[in-house]
Amino acid sequence: MALITDQITAPIREFARLAGIGESTAWEMVRGGTVQTISIGKRRLVVLASYRQYVEAQLAEPPKDARRNRTVPSLGSTKQQLAPADLTLRVDELGLSTRATNCLLNDQVNTLGQLVQKTERDLLEIPNFGRACLAEVNATLARRGLHLGMPPVPQPPPPQPAPTGRRRRA
Fold first, then answer.
1. pTM for this one?
2. DSSP string, 83-108
């Protein structure tokens, strides 16, 4: 049996550390065939070239939450541009925990636009909304390039009815 010597490999534990994932996730990738491995004796080593291909494929497609919310960030921009329609996103569609979502809805905070206008103090005054919920909301907003305490976004004026062509006589 010939040994493959020109490939760079790493043990599963080291591969998981380099990839920034858990060891269990690394083993799932190995079992699922996502990454290629070789066995030398009792050791199982990940071929790093197959991991590089996996990473490139992941970078080529938009993040899962962007596909779900239909907001794919433009290439080359480091900060996601927020369209006014995104502020109308309902709080229960943000992926927050049940406790955080229920607390916000009970306090009549129904949309993302209403949420970003609140301050940390406002949210902590909501019954059953504690520091853990606050940290969760801050993290969710940060992923979207938002933060608490933002000024209100002006709403576009409602469309005017089209003229009918008739004029009123006085």
1. 0.44
2. PGGGGG-BGGGS---HHHHHHHHHTT
